[in-house]
């Protein structure tokens, strides 16, 4: 039994690592798509795309995943991808928004609906939960190796045109109006800052504690959505019992 228990623990850690890696790849894939869509799909002519590709390589993202994300944006292979958003509630009443890039909306809608159903959640109509989120530009700068106080960083961010900033032990999170994101990004990069993230995202206005008896179902929903290749991002208001709230 001890051997089985050890295998089970190792397998559990591996599954958790795979899930975390999958979420990282999912986010990078979305960033690749957006960078290629907004500019030239050739990295030689697109500085932002080159930055994201460098991040993908640093995360050991397979080349086929990188190529697939760029192909989605450029229409290589004849497939036309659309951006679609689904809204619903996870177990415990947590609001969830799911962004997807798909060449088959029926397939994606069915898969997303099934994920909610399997976990005891429910899909809602358009607008049913989006009002609980604010669309913001988000820039993140890692604090490791950066000799900047919070006050100095805040002043630089505001001078660049940002609206607000939040500091954690690991990073500075700078918030902008979505329309100002590019300008703030370019100004900070011109000031010599190395950006870890520069994107438009959805920020929850409030967070909802996931009841302990719903936590397993909640994780299952997020894991199933993350495993879907069509899903490019998941925004949710939930705080799991063992989570540190970083928002």
From TrEMBL:
GO MF term set: DNA binding
Superkingdom of source: Bacteria
Annotated keywords: Cytoplasm, DNA-binding, Transcription, Transcription regulation
Entry's localization field: Cytoplasm
Positions of the TACO1/YebC-like second and third domain: 81-236
Domain TACO1/YebC-like N-terminal, residue spans: 5-75
InterPro entries per record: TACO1_YebC-like_2nd/3rd_dom, TACO1_YebC_N, Transcrip_reg_TACO1-like
UniProt key word DNA-binding: yes
Positions of region (Disordered): 1-22
PANTHER family per the UniProt record, alphabetical: TRANSCRIPTIONAL REGULATORY PROTEIN YEBC-RELATED, TRANSLATIONAL ACTIVATOR OF CYTOCHROME C OXIDASE 1
Listed NCBIfam families: PRK00110.1 (NF001030), PRK12378.1 (NF009044), YebC/PmpR family DNA-binding transcriptional regulator (TIGR01033)
HAMAP family: Transcrip_reg_TACO1
Family statement: Belongs to the TACO1 family.
Name listed for the protein in its UniProt record: Probable transcriptional regulatory protein QUW46_04610
Protein's organism: Limosilactobacillus panis
């Amino acid at each position: 039994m001890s051997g089985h228990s050890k295998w089970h623990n190792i397998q559990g850690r591996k599954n958790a690592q795979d899930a975390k890696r999958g979420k990282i790849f999912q986010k990078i894939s979305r960033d690749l798509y957006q960078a290629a869509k907004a500019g030239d799909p050739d990295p030689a002519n697109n500085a932002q795309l080159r930055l994201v590709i460098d991040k993908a390589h640093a995360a050991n993202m397979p080349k086929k995943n990188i190529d697939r994300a760029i192909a989605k944006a450029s229409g290589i292979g004849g497939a036309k991808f659309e951006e679609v958003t689904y809204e619903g509630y996870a177990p415990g009443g947590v609001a969830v928004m799911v962004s997807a890039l798909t060449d088959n909306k029926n397939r994606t809608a069915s898969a997303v609906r099934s994920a909610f159903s399997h976990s005891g959640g429910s899909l809602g109509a358009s607008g049913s939960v989006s009002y609980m989120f604010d669309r913001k530009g988000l820039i993140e700068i890692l604090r490791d190796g950066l000799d900047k106080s919070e006050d100095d960083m805040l002043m630089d961010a505001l001078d660049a045109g940002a609206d607000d900033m939040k500091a954690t032990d690991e990073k500075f999170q700078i918030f902008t109006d979505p329309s100002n994101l590019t300008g703030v990004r370019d100004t900070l990069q011109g000031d010599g800052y190395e950006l870890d993230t520069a994107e438009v995202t959805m920020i929850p206005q409030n967070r909802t504690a996931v009841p302990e008896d719903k936590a397993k179902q909640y994780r299952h929903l997020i894991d199933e959505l993350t495993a879907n290749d069509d899903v490019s991002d998941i925004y949710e208001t939930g705080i799991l019992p063992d989570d540190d709230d970083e928002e």
